[in-house]
Amino acid sequence: MTDLRKERIKYITAVVLYGTIGMFVRFVSLPSEEVALCRGLFGSLFILLYLKLTGQHMDRKAVRRNAFWLVMSGISLGLNWIFLFAAYVTTTVAIASLCNYMAPLIVILIAPFVLNEKLNVKKLPWVGLALIGIILVSGVIGSGPVNPRGLLMGMLAALGFTGVVICNRKIRDISALDKSVIQLAISAVTILPYVLVMNHGLVIPADLRSVLIVLMLGIVHTGFAYCLYFSGMGTLPVQTVAVLGYLEPVVSIFCSAFFLQEAMSISGWIGASMIIFAALMSETGS
Predict the structure, then answer these.
(1) Which H or E run includes 141?
(2) Which residue from 100, 127, 97 is spatially nearest to 264, judged by alpha carbons?
(3) Which of 21, 103, 163, 243 would bridge with 76, disulfide CB 3.0–4.6 Å?
(4) pLDDT at residue 236, rounded to an integer
(5) How many domains does the chain have?
(6) Alpha-helical runs (H) found in the chain
């Protein structure tokens, strides 16, 4: 097996793991924000252990040099998870995931203002197509609207995701794993006060299933998946990364429909296809 094929398999594995997170969250008895907290905590600890076992050392100078944007990206990641995990349990996993994947299109619109990048007019039709898609997914046209709170949580998650993307564009000359450790740790710190306020303290799950799923989401779906994800991203061509990255919402929709039995109207399926196609074309097209 060639090295490139191995890296492609690593990247696909990571993306598929990300796509199944929403499905597993539905089987946890903990509040969604506590699941997000554990994901950041266990994920950062796993990567720290991985760095230790592989003899790698964190570049403290690079961390200090990028401290501001690392902190801001970690806060954005924490907010993304708070709202996304809330969306997972408030609306369908498919709708939550699709709302979250509006982020790359939001970045296109705000990049001229926050990144001083020239607006690519050729990408605007894809933004418009995605907006039509989210209207169809929302149910406003078709079989009636979905839970508005779930839709709102999903769109707020997209704004958090947008913040992550913008901040990461500002970070320079630091390894992917070093960056991940800091971002995951900061995300946990960001989520902790929210958990304490919302639940008047930490809630300990009573059932073994919830404990095992939370551990799996932190260790396998975050720590392990991040290592695979950044390994593949650092080797594969940019266009390949962009195309394969959109397996995540596809997997989420599949899990929502076939494992959770969450129904979506025909207009919803059309809208979902439009969002994924638009987001994909916006990254791979000119």
Answers:
(1) none
(2) 97
(3) 163
(4) 79
(5) 1
(6) 3-19, 21-25, 32-53, 60-65, 67-90, 93-100, 103-114, 124-138, 148-170, 176-199, 208-218, 225-233, 238-245, 247-254, 266-284
Q: If pLDDT is split at 50, 70 and 90, which confidence band does 37 have?
A: very high
CA angle 79, 191, 110 (to 5 degrees): 15
Residues 77-116 have pLDDT tens digits of 999 999 999 999 999 998 999 899 888 888 888 888 888 8
| Helix runs in 121-207, H state only | 124-138, 148-170, 176-199
Q: How many residues does the chain have?
A: 286
Annotate 84-102 with DSSP letters as a single string: HHHHHHHS-HHHHHHHHTT
- Which residues contact residue 216 at a Cβ distance below 8 angstroms, ignoring those fewer than 6 apart? 24
| Structural domain span for residue 178 | 3-284
Residue 197 DSSP SS3: helix
Residues 225, 18: contact at Cβ < 8 Å? Answer: yes
Residue 230 scores a pLDDT above 90: no
How far apart CA 284 and CA 281 sit, in angstroms, is 5
Integer Rg of the chain from CA:
18
Question: Model-level pTM?
Answer: 0.88
CA distance 215 to 41: 10
Contacts of 100 (CB under 8 A, 6+ apart): 80, 84, 87, 154, 157, 158, 161, 249
**Which among 163, 160, 15 is positioned nearest to 86, based on CA atoms?**
160
What one-character DSSP code corresponds to residue 236? S
Give CA–CA dist 93/253, Å, rounded: 7
Mean pLDDT of all residues belonging to the chain: 88
Give the CA count within 13 Å in the CB-facing half-sphere of 127: 14
